[in-house]
Design brief:
The protein is mainly beta and 529 residues long. The protein has 2 helices and 33 strands.
Length: 529
């Protein structure tokens, strides 16, 4: 087994989108040390000493994990014996000692995501002076709020952008903050993006405007194809996201919102090993038999299939198979009118899957609607859910960050070559740890150079990467759920949300009978600490 790429999740190093914060020393406020001396004359001398003091506090911080801060405190112009107090802004404090030019690094974990003001006080008892500096910090973790499926962009009609196809190598800006009652402080958004009316093949990248990497992709399309994929993308400082057409020909783009993330307490994620909630071919979770044209069926999810009561949304992988005509599926909360959005598009005879995050209805159910004139079979796998009882927060990378392209040599040592049929490729995502603190991973996974029909399964590996390096890894059981389905000659992508595994190793199973090329982009991860 060849070496593969490993990413770092905040325990050193950085990834695109990492957040840092600073407060320079010239913001330090110097005052006489309270109670240092008595008497008016002494107080005046202390006041003068404070005015003349060179005591300065420079603060630098980074969001080390979803809930934590790593703070470097650099005190200048002061002798030894400093007493430094750090007020983290959540009602807790830490005390450290140091001397001039010391740069102690202190880590703190917040119980909840959010914005905090960190206050650092350095006391110089020898000179009767203290300095205070403050730093505004926001956790990198964000929690989820479900949103009724709502169309934000349709270039065919001029909704959300000009009424015109997005030109080849062109882009369109989509306003997120303030649209459809999405709050101004939105950090990331969940969109179902659809490409249609393409005259040539290409791909779509969805990212903040400031994101500079262009190797990744979110959605692949072919000429004449209508194809959708779910996207979780950070929102830019201007409240918008950019949809870039990576093809050379123009294409129409649609985007439907189903939820968003903010740096405030809402709902955290709970990953699950994929569990089948419905299969119309077998009568599992619903009546046996194809869903009639424009028909619907409900699925009980809250309190079922390991989904907690009170879950606000469920993460699904929805697959259509054996459709008799072209059409689309729409997943939405039960008890509501069907929205004018789509979750999955298909052609006659096609088997295709798409990742979907669906708000749960008041009765604990979701509804699946067949938007075709003719019947089709539907398979639904639950891969996780969002709940106010979980503090597992999203940490977004910033845009699609390429981890693997089997067509190219990996910088970590893997030589270019396809993933063989009926085999599993393990990839370490959390360095070489044996105790990963990642609850779940968000990936965009694509297959290309397909020679026959097949499907890909993505699961957490029970081994650690050191187990593979020393030859003690056990072979994981072959999964039965699918993450990506393809036909011969197709390039297909799908968003994958999978649990983290104890060592941060994920397995990519080529369940087809022919070799494929595999492309994996990191989008985000979920973390409790």
């Amino acid at each position: 087994m060849a070496a593969t790429t490993a990413v770092n999740t905040g325990k050193g190093g950085s990834l695109p989108g990492d957040k840092t914060f600073s407060s320079p020393a010239d913001r330090t406020v110097r005052t006489p040390l309270p109670g240092a001396r008595a008497g008016a004359a002494a107080a005046a001398r202390a006041q003068g000493a404070a005015a003349d003091s060179d005591l300065g506090i420079y603060l630098y911080a980074r969001a080390a994990t979803a809930h934590s801060i790593e703070l470097r405190t650099h005190v200048t112009g002061a002798p030894a014996g400093l007493d430094i107090t750090i007020d983290w802004g959540d009602g807790t404090t830490d005390h450290v000692t140091g001397s001039g030019d010391d740069q102690p690094v202190t880590t703190h974990t917040y119980a909840q995501v959010g914005a905090y003001t960190v206050t650092v006080t350095a006391k110089d008892a020898g000179n009767g002076v203290q300095g205070v500096n403050r730093l505004d910090f926001v956790t990198s973790g964000s929690e989820y709020t479900a949103h009724a499926p709502t169309r934000l962009l349709d270039t065919r009609s001029g909704l959300g952008a000009a009424q015109a196809k997005v030109p080849g190598r062109g882009s369109v800006a989509l306003k997120i903050a303030g649209a459809a009652r999405i709050p101004a402080g939105v950090r990331a958004v969940v969109l179902n993006v659809t490409a249609t009316n393409a005259t040539g093949a290409g791909h779509v990248v969805v990212q903040p405007e400031s994101y500079g990497f262009d190797e990744g992709s979110n959605l692949n399309y072919a000429a004449g194809q209508t194809v959708a994929n779910q996207v979780i993308v950070p929102v830019g400082k201007d409240g918008s996201v950019q949809l870039l057409n990576g093809g050379w020909e123009s294409v129409d783009l649609l985007a439907d919102v189903t939820g968003y993330f903010t740096a405030s307490v809402a709902a955290g994620y709970v990953p699950l090993s994929p569990v089948r909630a419905a299969d119309t071919r077998e009568g599992l979770g619903t009546a046996k038999g194809q869903v009639r044209g424009y028909g619907t069926f409900d699925i009980d999810v809250a309190g079922r299939k390991r989904v907690a009561e009170g879950a606000t949304a469920v993460a699904l992988n929805v697959t259509v198979t054996n459709p008799r005509a072209a059409g689309h599926l729409t997943a939405y909360p039960s008890g509501q009118a069907a929205p004018t959005t789509s979750s999955l598009n298909f052609t006659a005879g096609q088997t295709v899957a798409n990742s979907v995050i669906v708000p749960v209805g008041a009765d604990g159910k979701i509804t699946i609607r067949n938007g075709s004139w003719d019947p089709a079979d539907v398979v639904v796998d639950v891969v996780g859910y969002y709940s106010s009882g979980s503090r597992s927060a999203l940490v977004a990378v910033g845009g699609p960050y390429r981890i693997l392209d089997s067509r190219k040599d990996s910088w970590a040592g893997r030589k270019a070559g396809p993933v063989p049929a009926r085999t599993m490729l393990p990839l370490p995502f959390d360095s070489h740890t044996t105790d990963s603190h990642i609850d779940g991973w968000v990936l965009n996974t694509a297959v290309t150079n397909t020679k026959d029909a097949g499907f890909l399964s993505v699961t957490a590996d029970p081994n650690t990467w050191p187990d593979y390096l020393n030859g003690s890894a056990v072979t994981p059981p072959r999964p039965v759920s699918s993450s990506v389905n393809w036909t011969a000659g197709a390039t297909v992508a799908n968003l994958v949300q999978t649990s983290g595994g104890k060592g941060g190793v994920l397995d990519f199973w080529n369940q087809g009978w022919r070799d494929i090329d595999l492309i994996v982009d990191l989008i985000a991860w979920y973390q409790t600490n």
